[in-house]
Amino acid sequence: MFTQIKQINQDSLAEAKRWLESGESVAFPTETVYGLGGDARRDDSVRKIYEIKGRPSDNPLIVHVHKDFDLSSLVYDERPYAAELRKAFLPGPLTLVYKSRGAVSNLVSCGLDTLAVRVPSHAGAQEFLKFVDMPIAAPSANISKHISPVSAEHVYEDLKGKLPLILDGGRCTGGIESTVCDVTGEYPVVLRTGLVSAEMIAQVTGKCDVYIPKSGERVRSPGMKYKHYAPKCRTRLFSSEQLNEAHEEFLSLQKSGLRVFVLCEESELGAFPEEYVLNLGNTEKEMAANLYELLHKGEKIADVIVAIEPKKKDGVMAGVLNRLTKACAEE
Ligand code: AMP
Ligand code: MG
User: Fold this and answer.
1) What is the pLDDT of residues 194-226, one digit of tens each?
2) Does ligand 1 lie within 6 Å of residue 56's CB atom?
3) Which residues of the sequence carry a binding annotation for ATP (predicted)?
4) How far is residue 107's CA from residue 222's CA, in Å, rounded to a whole number?
5) Which of 94, 144, 146, 287 reaches 20 to 30 Å from 230, CA-CA?
6) Burial of 288 (0-12, 13-18, 19+ CB in 10 A)
């Protein structure tokens, strides 16, 4: 199949709609990462998404809708605090998990009785969702376990030949995936950290937990159990206290003839030669926005990325650290 990249306009949106109506997948930009979208109501369309990505069949998808979409047609909205969260953060990088009405394909939620719904704020995403006016099931538009795409080119590199159309909305400004938050219980529980932090949610609702699976327990957000977001080159991860060890590792790998690059926050860069650094930046916003872009760049130029965890661990950085740890995980 021939894959085209097109700017978002009335022609490309009409084409996207035709492809979706014929059961194909279309990639589209959001403020977090690019999504691989299909008609959430159709088994064949949803199955195709799993096939294209090579995604495990027990890792449920998020349904994307435009801001005026009738939420009550998809889910039971039982908790008053969920409306407060929507008012505070949507459209935006927050996915809410509700009790499902079963209006979309069962394959979307992998047999769970819940449905994850997201209303992206990206103008191009809103235009696309409004134009097609259907619930769009969409995971990140990359081969399963690889780094999430933050540009149309990243999508093309991973998925060319497997989908007909990539809608190009430029570089994603958020940089890491949406926060996934369960709103079925008495208070919200963050299942996946992201750009809307647990602290920000608690400010609205008074209370918010972050779910950490206990060993042996069935995970509540199945996607979180996988190694993820990984570059194709080798990685070595060091904590923010291990700057000296990271430096030694850098020198020893370099001595052995490997192309070694260091990924870390700006204030830690001093110890390393300028031409071998991947600079995450200073603020938590910058670090979230730069992480995947730099991992994509790194895998093209490095044999090994030596990554050093940023010092700040809470707020949005919880999401950044979660992605960085998984990107550098063994399995
Ligand atoms: P991705 O599409 O790669 O951004 O991953 C979607 C994330 O949302 C994964 O971590 C899934 O486990 C999670 N997710 C999707 N649907 C549900 C659901 N119904 N309940 C809990 N987590 C979900
Ligand atoms: Mg993903």
Assistant:
1) 999 999 999 999 999 999 877 777 777 766 766
2) no
3) 55, 59, 114, 118, 140, 148, 192, 229
4) 14
5) 94
6) buried
